[in-house]
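[step 3/7] inverse_fold.run input=structure_tokens len=256
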């Protein structure tokens, strides 16, 4: 038996290898800078395979990678504040998942490209919320992040921008973020499973792509401290921008 025998019927060996390459690059960005994996992976991967398949694939491999970090995050996080913002994700994730499950693939790709472009601008702006803490605002931010996660697994920037601007210790902010995404990923797993997005195909593909993603994360982490974080973040921003442009459906006839 060959690797091709294990692939989903709509995924060729070439597509699988391309997804692995994208996963390695996005994993490297995640390992070094702690962000950017979904913003690089989703525009490119959804131009290679069906958006529903690659969103489920990214959810599975990232959920597995993040799970070991949750016990420590639980101990260090402000669980009360996190619970409030998680309420928003509880609403936002199913809505995003619904749109992912019913929209046409090309329409979904346009939305993903638009979302990622907007989130890149948010990152470039250096936005941090420094106003007062309001429950309704926390729920709204959680809902927005949850919607982005349900639709395209791109819920990071709103949460990071919100919590890193709060007057709390950085170790608590990081734990809050990790705990939030643990809950958000759980909601996504349930939503994706009930809508049929978590399928045999996505699980099989995760066994192939997941280890490559993990190698990329480890490689990126090994670079930390050896290169300027400012320079590497700039590289990540450029990669996200390239992913947005290269993933545009209008370029299908040229690039694919």
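[step 3/7] decode complete -> sequence:
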């Amino acid at each position: 038996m060959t690797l091709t025998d294990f692939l989903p019927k709509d995924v060729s060996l070439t597509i699988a290898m391309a997804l692995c390459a994208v996963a390695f690059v996005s994993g490297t960005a995640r390992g070094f800078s702690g962000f950017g994996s979904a913003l690089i992976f989703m525009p490119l991967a959804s131009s290679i395979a069906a958006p529903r398949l690659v969103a489920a694939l990214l959810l599975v491999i990232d959920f597995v990678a993040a799970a070991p970090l949750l016990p420590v995050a639980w101990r260090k996080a402000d669980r009360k504040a996190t619970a409030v913002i998680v309420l928003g994700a509880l609403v936002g994730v199913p809505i995003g998942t619904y749109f992912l499950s019913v929209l046409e693939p090309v329409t979904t790709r346009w939305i993903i490209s638009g979302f990622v472009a907007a989130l890149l601008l948010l990152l470039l702006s250096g936005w941090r919320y420094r106003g007062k803490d309001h429950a309704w605002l926390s729920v709204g931010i959680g809902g927005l992040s949850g919607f982005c996660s349900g639709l395209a697994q791109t819920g990071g920037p709103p949460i990071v921008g919100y919590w890193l601007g709060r007057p709390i210790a950085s170790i608590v902010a990081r734990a809050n973020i990790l705990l939030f995404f643990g809950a958000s990923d759980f909601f996504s797993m349930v939503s994706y499973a009930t809508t049929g997005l978590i399928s045999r195909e996505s699980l099989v593909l995760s066994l192939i792509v997941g280890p490559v993603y993990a190698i990329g994360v480890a490689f990126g982490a090994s670079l930390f401290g050896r290169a300027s974080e400012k320079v590497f973040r700039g590289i990540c921003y450029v990669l996200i921008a390239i992913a947005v442009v290269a993933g545009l459906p209008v370029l299908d006839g040229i690039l694919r």
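[step 4/7] annotate
The chain has one domain: 10-251.
The chain has a mean pLDDT of 84.
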